Amino acid sequence: MSKPIKGRPSDGLFRQNIVLMSGLLIGPVIAGAKDFYSAAAISLVFSLITFFSVAICRIVPRRLVYTVRIILYAIVSAALYVPAYLICRNIMGEEIMVGVGIYLPLLVVNHVILSKTETRLFHLPYFQMLRDVLGYIVGFVGACMLTGIIRDIFVNARIGRIDIEVGFLVPALETTFGGFIVVGILAGVCRGIYNRAKRD
Amino acid sequence: MLSSFLTAALLAILLQNAIFERAIGANILIYASRRKEQVIGFAVVITYVTTLASVVAWVLSLYLSEWAYFGILMPLLYILVISVIYILSLVLVWRFFPNLFRKITTYVHLSVFNCSVLGGLFLISFYEQHGGELSRFIGFGFGTGIGFLAAGYLLYIAYPRLNSKLVPAAFRGLPITLVYVGIISLALYAFVGYATR
After folding, report:
1. Which of A118, A144, B6, B146 is 20–30 Å from A5 (CA)?
2. CB atoms near residue B161 (< 10 Å)
3. Rounded to two decimals, what is the model's pTM?
4. Are the Cβ atoms of B75 and A26 closer than 8 angstroms?
5. Cβ distance A96 to A37 under 8 Å?
6. pLDDT, tens digit, for every residue of B17-28?
7. Longest CA–CA separation in chain A, Å
8. Are B22 and A75 a contacting pair at CB < 8 A?
9. Which of B19, B22, B122 is the best residue to mutate to test the A interface, defined by the most A CB atoms within 10 Å of its own CB?
10. Predicted confidence (pLDDT) per residue in A5-60, tens digit
C-alpha cells in the first residue's frame, strides 16, 4: 500500500519548482541555456527523458534494494537519451545540439528520475504520478526557457529569430557566472512571489 | 608522466573547475555544503569514482572515440562504468569496513549518480582527445574531485552568512548562494583571463 503523499500535481510547477525553488538540475540551465534555442533543446530532451523514464521505471520491483534500483533508473534514462537526442536533433538541427554540448547528456542523471521517484512519485497512483511528473517538467521548462529568453534578449537583442530593440546589451550574461547570477535572481524573485502569495 | 598528471589535475581544479567554469554538479555542491563532513564525504566519493572511471574513459577513447555513435551512446557507456565501480566498491566497503558502510549508505548513491561524476567524465573525454596519455586522463579525473572539494569548502565557510537573517527572506539560501558562486566564478574567469578562451 502506497503511503499517502501531501501536495498537489501543480507543486512541481511553482512550490517545488526543481530549478528555482529546489535548486536541482541547475547546471544545464546556468551553463547550457544561453539563448532561446539552446534552452528549447534542453527543455525538449529533459521532457522526453524524464517523462518516459519515470513511466518505465515505475515497473522496477520495489523489493529490489535502492542500490540496485538507482542503477536501473540511470540505465533506463541513459538508454532513452538516444531517441530523445535524435528527435531533438531532427527538430532543432545539428548546430544547436553541438552548441549545447555536454549539458544534454547530463540530463540523464536528473533528480526527478533518481530522487523524486523514491520520495514522492512512486508513492502515487500511476496516472496521478504521470500528472505530477508533468508538473515538474513544466516547471523545469518554464525556468529554463525564461533563463534562455532573458539571456537571448540581453546578449543578442532577440528572442529566437525575432529581433528586439534593447537599449543596452550585457554580453557577460552568456557566461557561466552570468548564468549563476541570472538564475540566482530569478530564484529570489520566484521565492518572493511565492512567499507573498502564501501570506495573502 | 607525473608532470602531465599534475598539469591535467591543475587544469581540472583551477581553469576548468567543473563547478565554477561549467556549473556541473552545482546542485549537489549546494546540498553538500551545509556540513563539513558532507563536503568531504561527497568530495572523496566523487574523486574516487572519477579517478577510477577516467581509466575506463581512456580505454574507451582509444577504441571508440572514432566510432560515429560514440557521442550519443557515451551517457549509457559511462553510466554502466559508474554502476560497475559503484557496486564493486560498495561490496568491498561492506565486506571490509562495515562501520564505514553504515555511515555512507545515506548519501553514497547521491554522490555517485550525479552531474559531477558524469560531467567530469564528459569533460575528460572532451579535453583529452583520442590517443591522449593515461596520466592526463587520471589527472583530470582526480582534479575534478579535488576541484569539487575546493568549491565545497568555499561554499561551506560562507554557508552561515548566506543563510543568515541579514539576507532578505526571498534571497536567503539558494538564490544568494547562486549569486555568491557566480561572483567566485567571475573572479576565476578574470584570474584565468578571458582573452585566452
Report:
1. A144
2. 11
3. 0.91
4. no
5. yes
6. 889 988 998 988
7. 60
8. no
9. B22
10. 666 767 777 888 999 998 888 999 999 999 999 999 999 999 999 999 999 999 99
Coil, strand or helix at B21 = coil
Q: How far is CA A121 from CA A8, A26, A57, B128, in A?
A: 12, 21, 11, 39
What type of residue sits at position B101?
Answer: F
- B30 to chain A, any CB pair closer than 8 A? The answer is yes
Q: What angle do CA A172, A178, A183 make, to 5 degrees?
A: 150
- Shortest alpha-carbon distance between residue B3 and chain A (Å): 28
Q: For testing the chain B interface, which of A26, A87, A110 should be mutated: the one with the most B CBs within 10 Å?
A: A26
Spell out the alpha helix ranges (H) of chain B. 2-10, 26-32, 36-64, 70-96, 98-104, 108-112, 115-127, 134-162, 174-192
SS (H, E, C) chain A: CCCCCCCCHHHHHCCCCCCCCCCCCCHHHHHHCCCHHHHHHHHHHHHHHHHHHHHHHCCCCCCCCHHHHHHHHHHHHHHHHHHHHHHHHHHHCHHHHHHHHHHCHHHHHCHHHHHHHHHCHHHCCHHHHHHHHHHHHHHHHHHHHHHHHHHHHHHHCEECCEECCCCCCCHHHHCHHHHHHHHHHHHHHHHHHHHHHHHC
**What ipTM was estimated for this complex?**
0.90
Ranking A3-12, A44-53, B3-12, B48-57 by mean pLDDT, the lowest is: A3-12
